[in-house]
Design goal:
By secondary structure, the protein is mostly beta strands. The protein has one domain: Beta Barrel (Porin). Helix content is 10%, strand content 66%. The strands form 2 sheets. An 11-stranded mixed β-barrel has the order 1-2-3-4-7-8-9-10-11-12-13. Strands 5-6 form a two-stranded antiparallel sheet. β1 and β2 form a beta hairpin.
């Protein structure tokens, strides 16, 4: 119970920081990730991200993704084909604009475990259908979860989470962005966990921080 209170306090502190987002150029992302088995080998990916320029109310981007994945080995080495809908509302010359993007993506995820260290590699290829353009992009994410009060990621475990993800265009300019993330997480039960953290996003002409709160749901849709 103490662990859950610690995480709740951490989320509260991150939220209070986000309230002064406009002064600090700090955004806030609220995220839901579902990865639900629909058979022994197949899984359904579903994801919603509500991204704000400030703590709440000034929408930067709404991202909805879904896809079907297949485990090449049991609970690991997953390949996935997915679709994403992205509504963006950036500021251009001080005026709010709106853009819609449709995205097809293919990805491969593999996991490794060394002692307490739970490592994930994610390779993703994206075909991006923008309103007036088409682009292809490659992304590589290296993530790490480390349980703190238990040796394994068991229920009621507090853990640290970090990742680095780089984005590369197939056309010029090659470099798109890089994201560095650190968070504190709590395993609610074997199928659910929550994280609260900070992500710094580096782009060619911009460097901006994001407070992130994410909920992860792995409840299977089948008993198999």
């Amino acid at each position: 119970m103490k662990i859950f209170k610690i995480l709740a306090v951490s989320i509260g502190l991150l939220g209070s920081i986000g309230l002064s987002a406009q002064k600090n150029d700090l955004g806030a992302w609220y995220m839901y990730f579902g990865n639900n088995k629909i058979s022994k080998k197949l899984n359904l990916h579903n994801e919603i991200q509500y991204r704000n320029f400030d703590a709440l109310g000034d929408l930067e981007q709404l991202l909805i993704r879904t896809g079907i994945g297949y485990d090449l080995t049991e609970n690991n080495n997953n390949i996935l084909l997915g679709y994403g809908f992205i509504l963006s509302r950036p500021y251009v010359n001080g005026e709010k604009t709106e853009n819609i993007e449709h995205r097809i993506f293919q990805q491969y995820i593999t996991k490794q475990k060394f002692g307490r260290f739970n490592i994930q590699h994610r390779y993703r290829l994206e075909e991006r259908f923008l309103q007036d353009d088409f682009r292809m992009r490659f992304r590589y994410l290296l993530g790490l979860n480390i349980p703190i009060n238990n040796k394994e990621m068991l229920p009621k475990t507090l853990y640290g989470s970090v990742y680095n993800e780089i984005f590369l265009h197939f056309n010029s300019p090659t470099f798109d962005r890089n994201r560095v993330y650190g968070a504190l997480g709590y395993v609610i039960n074997k199928n659910m966990r929550i994280e609260a953290g900070y992500m710094n996003q580096i782009q060619e002409t911009r460097n901006r921080g994001q407070i992130q709160i994410g909920f992860y749901n792995n409840i299977p849709f089948t008993k198999d």
